[in-house]
């Protein structure tokens, strides 16, 4: 018997999505973001890097601005108007107090009820090794959720402490607990990934449109089996 997933909570107004790279949110999560912004909720994106080391055919000084522009266009398609970039180095993000401080400061500025991040497990699905950046940022998000509410940790941030994070939702995991029906946001999720055209063209020989449809629609319809037959984006939800 297939374990059925619970619906994500909907009694919140503000979310902050924190990931390592441009494109991390577009591989599935953006369809859920489109659904949430349609309902009048506010979602802010924060990238720890500018993705400058992500395109083998472009040097970092060229790739960084390209990937930043692609992320801004991608976010706009799903109703996100605020996208911030930190300047941690792509590919070599270090977990530690410097990263935790930056993330806690962002949480204090934006005061979200829901935090979103990407799979920080050692592997994808138990087979493919996850990247150091994903592991470092995801684990720092979990820790910064608590740091942000403690006035004695990082007391020099501009914004006051924020202890209002109610959940952390982790996308892209093999053992999710909750899901969002993305029937209405699926096509915009596909288009948001397509905006990362330079990245996709360096990654695969497939047509970017076909690639985006295969990635986003394929996953969402696969997850429907666990969510009442509805196309879904899934999360592992950690209440706080």
UniProtKB/TrEMBL annotation:
Gene Ontology BP annotations: glycoside metabolic process
Keyword Transmembrane helix: no
Matches recorded under SUPFAM superfamilies: LmbE-like (SSF102588)
Entries under Pfam families matching the protein: PIG-L (PF02585)
Tagged with keyword Lipid biosynthesis: no
Record GO terms (molecular function): hydrolase activity, acting on carbon-nitrogen (but not peptide) bonds, in linear amides
Keywords: Zinc
InterPro entries named among the record's database cross-references: GlcNAc_PI_deacetylase-related, LmbE-like_dom_sf
Protein name: LmbE family N-acetylglucosaminyl deacetylase
Taxonomic placement: Bacteria, Bacillati, Actinomycetota, Actinomycetes, Streptosporangiales
